[in-house]
Specification:
20% of the residues lie in helices and 35% in strands. With 280 residues, it is α+β, with helices and mostly antiparallel strands. The chain has one domain. The longest helix is centred in the last third of the chain and has 24 residues. The protein is globular.
């Protein structure tokens, strides 16, 4: 395995001041990882200043009806800090790990309660991904949805100190975020982009106000020539997937409302879907 934390060219992201919201990359990213003949590399971080586009709002309306969605007139006052960012490659799948938080400027607060909203773009989306048949799609994708709210965290996750919000702080203001998206290496070459937005939720009338955000992501490509798998490769691979899925079901029974359990299941579902749609 080859891991790269240094980049001779332009840094991934500097501290980016905005009229109100600041994005701060305090972590030292792991920019690329190579293993099993595949390389995962981080995509540049891109501040998202304009809120959701009309077509993405339409996606959320289709997936989560009964809410009103509107972009905020101005950015939320505070700092989006990224404390960890690393490319991941485990020879079966590639992805990344990210940990971040939002802290309002001293004296400012959420109008109601801050939430995270996220959508994904996979290019190309050659086969379904966790139930998503077109790209972009809202996160969680269809097979991973645990509730009918348009937010990244479920209510139990969002209300858990140390997971959904910073322990010892205001539950409505100080958001935490972690994600570990993975994509099957057999999809390579592939580009995955995730667009994360800060939002405010008024639960009394179901209104969602979207602020600024951040696009992050990764690319997967063959690091060296990888031979095409023959028929004999698929049978043991299928057995491997079934064994992983058995463990995944057991983990699901033992889960205690933590989003990380869902992240661990994602690679199992991804491998299963890909094999099901690409069997010889």
């Amino acid at each position: 395995m080859v891991v790269s934390t240094l980049r001779a060219l332009v840094p991934l992201l500097l501290v980016i001041p905005a009229p109100a919201m600041t994005i701060d990359l305090s972590a030292t990213p792991t920019y690329s990882v190579t293993a099993g003949g595949y390389e995962t590399s981080l995509a540049p971080l891109i501040p998202l200043r304009q809120g959701l586009s009309n077509n993405i709002i339409t996606l959320f309306q289709q997936d989560y009806p009964g809410f009103s969605y509107a972009n905020a007139d101005a950015a939320a006052s505070g700092t989006l800090a990224i404390s960890a960012l690393a490319a991941v490659q485990n020879t079966l799948a590639g992805g990344l790990y990210i940990s971040a938080s939002f802290t309002p400027t001293t004296g400012s607060h959420a109008p109601h309660a801050y939430e995270w909203m996220q959508y994904l773009t996979i290019d190309p989306l050659s086969t379904p991904f966790a139930g998503a048949v077109s790209s972009p799609f809202t996160d969680p994708p269809p097979n991973e949805r645990d509730d009918n709210l348009p937010f990244y965290w479920t209510i139990p996750e969002r209300n858990t100190p140390g997971l959904g919000y910073a322990a010892g702080t205001n539950i409505n203001d100080d958001l935490l975020f972690t994600d570990a998206p993975l994509v099957n290496n057999l999809r390579s070459p592939v580009k995955v982009r995730l667009s994360l937005y800060l939002a405010d939720f008024d639960s009394t009338n179901g209104s969602v106000t979207i602020y600024d955000g951040l696009q992050y992501g990764f690319d997967i490509a063959a690091a060296t020539a990888v031979p095409e798998p023959d028929t004999g490769v698929w049978l043991p691979a299928a057995f491997l997937v079934l064994e992983v899925l058995k463990l995944s079901k057991r983990a699901a029974r033992l889960r205690s409302g933590c989003r990380l359990s869902r992240q661990k299941r994602r690679i199992c579902l991804e491998i299963f879907d890909f094999l099901r749609h690409n069997r010889p």
